[in-house]
Design brief:
single chain; alpha/beta; Aspartate Aminotransferase, domain 1; Aspartate Aminotransferase, domain 2; 2 domains; eight-stranded mixed sheet; six-stranded mixed sheet; 16 strands; 40% helix
Length: 415
Amino acid sequence: MYSQFGDAFAIKSGTRELMDDLGAIARGGRDLINLGGGNPSLIPAMQAMFERAWASVPAADWVSLASVYDAPQGHPAFLERMSEVLRTQFGWPAKAGNLLVTSGSQASFFALFNLFGGTDTKGRLRQILLPQAPEYIGYAQSGIAPAMLTSFPGLIEHVADHRFKYRPDFDRIAVTERHAAVCVSRPCNPTGNVITDEELARLRHLAQDAGVPLIVDCAYGQPFPGIVFAPASLAWDEDLIVCLSLSKLGLPGLRTGLVVAKSETIDLLTSINAMLTLAPNPVGARLMLALMAEQDVLALAREVVGPHYAAASRRALAACDELLGHTDYLAHVSEGAIFLWLWFPRLPVPVQQLYERLKARGVLVIPGHHFGPGLSEPWPHLGQCLRLSYAQPEERLRAGLRVLAEELRALGYPG
């Protein structure tokens, strides 16, 4: 009855499961402890700035924005101002023609993956290479063509008591004629991993040698929102596609993404915008334009947003060691993003069952098996992992961790 693309959605994805859980919270059900979602913290200093920026826009401007279609590439004044910020403050040789506004990161990646990947004019399936699993849950089901994503498990490095880190397995990673693009999140959602500058350079060289773009998902990274705690730099040029988002600055409800790429790619993405939505919603771009008139957005990322999450990350890991340290647990080193990635190597049940037990007690997490888009076969390691968000009051996180510890004990999990 449906197409292959439609049938793929008959399987309930991790993204759908997550958003259904969040929808239950929004409908005012039980008082759930939400450690599962990607909603950012409500940072008082940022909230105050957004309120002032919103109030500074004349009511007539909001009426005019709502009364006419915006440009399919995005709000022109915002594109000009943002490109100026990226040139002067971050050293990127970007002009307005190198930027495009989308309806959030999910829309950005749906457009990009299907722009490059899928069946080419010669009838060949060309894939998007995700070089290191675990990787972002939202990439799954993004390809119109089946089997459009391909990936490899990361190497696991034990770095300290109760700590580990993933590394790209460059002995297995190869970019061939089968691949249309390479994509990596930096920092990684779900793990908080930041691939090093050297690792990023190796991926760039592999992509350049194959003549395909490298897409870097910076929804949590540089130049904003700057939720990066490890040494990292990023220099844009036309071989690179960078995806940014206003969500983790604190504006997830406005669904505003930003793509930085060569002008030819931006032109094609503009046509996709025009077909899908006619034009992206301009509210987020107009609010950011007002904010940039009074604030240095990159300084806000460095001085407000980044430090807020760095401190929250340290508290969250300390809470894990306090409440879970008696068990055989490991946490991925927290180098960025807003999540904890916990590994229970001797978990006696599938992680989905642990998720269900926690949910029954009012604690929402995300089971790790959802974070392997593109893997050719199941990776048992993911079935031993959980993603937790620490972007909430510390007492809520600690309450959730206490329930997790109790459920692990009830399962007989070893210490």
